Signal peptidase complex subunit 1 (Decorospora gaudefroyi), 102 residues
Amino acid sequence: MADQLLEQVRDAVEGQIDFEGQRLAEMLSTVLLGAAGILAFLVGYMMQDIKLALYIGLAGSALTFVVVVPPWPFYNKNPEDWLPPHNAASQYNIDVDGQKVG
């Protein structure tokens, strides 16, 4: 029972993102966390309320988590074409540092 539930959760959260998607996720996390920090600081300073500033920072972190962590489909728009498995790669002559590979 627990194994089936764990497998369903794993299937739901396991996803593929490509290299461009990784770059986009990193950029989004940097921008969103930076904007949340600046907004939290400014609002906290203007209102003189540290609790409000912390809540805004926490909300910005939660928003960043929701945007960046799940493998959304827009993170896999440029998938890579990898080499075939070793047994199918025998038709390719791949040379690495003077040694034949594959």
Notes: Residues 19-47 form the longest helix (29 residues). The mean pLDDT is 88. The CA atoms of residues 92 and 98 lie 15 Å apart.
